[in-house]
């Protein structure tokens, strides 16, 4: 039966920490590569980007084939030390195929790189192999390095290359390598258990998932005897990776081509973060807001859509009071409907200037907008506004004063750094510094105003007494 000794938690913890660090390194490496791809694609137009992606896919496929085929061919073949028998069930005895080697021999790199992922992973979970075959630790480390490199290169390309199976193979190679080292010290251990811990540790380091990975591990082992080391090592791996980088999925959202996706996570409490008590929602919102009226000309709408990338626009009255909120998609749909009704050239003509007075056709925005948008008073505590923003699943929150006049707008981008535990303290201090600078500027302007008033009074009295001429000073 698959089991472990209590003292093995120490080397298993080392495996979990190492794979967690490697998973965070994979996330960082893929993020840099994705940023480089994005910068390179911006240098070309749409057709050039397609050609670049096709060329990249071709080079990646060629490199993968060269590495996975030539490394086993260049490696030496090993002979079976005993007569090869039929392999038993997984976790007990596996069978290494000969792949590129002649009959009676086998290739270690070929067994890991040239076979389907599932077959190679099952071999790593075995206790031993038929024919007294073995997977040397050096070949396990080399296979892990090659798979890590290929995974980092192929991730975020134009072809589906997978993430879970390569990550499992990387972690299983590293875990089994350490298990075989411990086994060489005359300890009776199961290398497959170390391979399992390495696999779940690598997955936790990349994805930061916990419960789902534990359930997958239990399904792979078909026993609950390993629930304690699996759970412990998942937590250790995730904790080690969280100290270094975000998960590969969070980084993917951050680097999305649209650049508008953001995740708000967790909760912020004033008791845990005393800095929050000094901040209001007005300190975190954007005060430069692009607004619209209830009725706007089509040329003005087109100008706003072309010059900005905002997702929504508050509608205000003549006294700057909030009367609605309209989404960018609604404005685009409105222009499309107007184009279909009045003709494309007439609706989207750029010949008519915005303020020429010739564009007299006004579009009613009140009929499409949200007439009851979410609003908050400018003096609302930031922690309270954050909880309301997350609980309601908002994308925009209008900030108003006592008379419902718009003073700012709060978006997910404004709260993104505050929501993340790693950047929360730095973001709050930046908001406090900005607030202090604004207060200092206001005090200096008031002081300058008072000084100007005193100077004006002094000039008046000096003129009355015949003094104060500029050449007297």
Q: What does this entry look like structurally?
A:
55% of the residues lie in helices and 8% in strands. It has 17 helices and eleven strands. The strands form five sheets. A three-stranded mixed β-sheet has the order 9-10-11. A two-stranded antiparallel sheet has the order 1-3. A two-stranded parallel ribbon has the order 2-4. The N and C termini lie far apart (101 Å).
Compact summary:
By secondary structure, this protein is mostly helical. It has 17 helices and eleven strands. Strands 9-10-11 form a three-stranded mixed β-sheet. A two-stranded antiparallel sheet has the order 1-3.
Enumerate the strands of the largest sheet in spatial order, edge to edge or round the barrel: 9-10-11
Topology pattern, helix = H, strand = E: HHEEEHHEHHHHHHHEHEEHHEEHEEHH
The mean pLDDT is 83
Distance between the termini: 101 Å
- What percentage of the residues does DSSP assign to strands (E)? 5-15%
Poorly predicted residue ranges: 344-352, 460-473
């Amino acid at each position: 039966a698959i089991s472990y000794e209590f003292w093995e938690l120490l080397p298993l913890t080392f495996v979990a920490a190492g794979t967690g660090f490697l998973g965070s390194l994979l996330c960082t490496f893929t993020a840099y590569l994705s940023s480089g791809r994005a910068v390179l694609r911006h240098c070309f137009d749409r057709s050039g980007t397609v050609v670049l992606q096709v060329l990249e896919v071709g080079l990646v496929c060629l490199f993968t084939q060269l590495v996975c085929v030539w490394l086993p061919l260049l490696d030496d073949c090993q002979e079976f030390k005993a007569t090869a028998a039929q392999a038993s069930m997984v976790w007990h005895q596996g069978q290494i195929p000969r792949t590129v080697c002649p009959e009676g021999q086998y290739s270690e790199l070929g067994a890991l790189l040239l076979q389907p992922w599932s077959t190679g992973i099952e071999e790593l979970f075995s206790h031993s192999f038929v024919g007294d075959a073995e997977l040397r630790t050096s070949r396990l480390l080399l296979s892990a390095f090659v798979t890590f490199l290929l995974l980092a290169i192929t991730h975020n390309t134009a072809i589906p290359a997978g993430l879970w199976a390569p990550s499992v193979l990387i972690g299983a190679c590293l875990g089994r390598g350490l298990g075989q080292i411990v086994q060489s010290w005359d300890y009776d251990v199961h290398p497959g258990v170390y391979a399992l811990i390495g696999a779940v540790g690598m997955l936790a380091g990349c994805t930061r998932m916990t419960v789902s990975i534990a359930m997958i591990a239990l399904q792979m082992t078909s026993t609950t005897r390993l629930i304690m080391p699996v759970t412990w090592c998942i937590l250790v791996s995730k904790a080690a990776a969280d100290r270094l980088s975000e998960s590969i999925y969070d980084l993917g959202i951050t680097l999305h081509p649209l650049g508008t996706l953001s995740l708000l996570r967790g909760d912020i409490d004033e008791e845990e973060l005393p800095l929050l008590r000094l901040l209001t929602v007005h300190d975190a919102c954007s005060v430069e807001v692009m607004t619209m009226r209830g009725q706007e000309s089509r040329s003005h709408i087109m100008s706003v859509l072309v010059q900005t990338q905002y997702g929504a626009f508050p509608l205000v009255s003549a006294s700057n009071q909030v009367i609605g909120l309209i989404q960018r998609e609604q404005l685009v749909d409105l222009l499309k409907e107007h184009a279909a009704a009045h003709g494309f050239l007439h609706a989207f003509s750029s010949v008519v200037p915005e303020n020429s007075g010739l564009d007299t056709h006004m579009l009613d925005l009140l009929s499409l907008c949200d007439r009851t948008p979410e609003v908050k008073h400018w003096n609302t505590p930031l922690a309270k506004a954050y909880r309301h923003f997350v609980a309601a699943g908002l994308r925009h929150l209008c900030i108003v004063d006592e008379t419902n006049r718009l003073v700012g707008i709060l978006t997910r981008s404004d709260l993104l750094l505050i929501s993340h535990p790693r950047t929360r303290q730095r973001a709050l201090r930046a908001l406090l510094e900005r607030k202090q600078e604004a207060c200092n500027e206001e005090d200096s302007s008031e002081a300058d105003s008072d000084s100007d008033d005193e100077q004006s009074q002094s000039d008046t009295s000096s003129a009355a007494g015949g003094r104060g001429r500029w050449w007297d000073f």
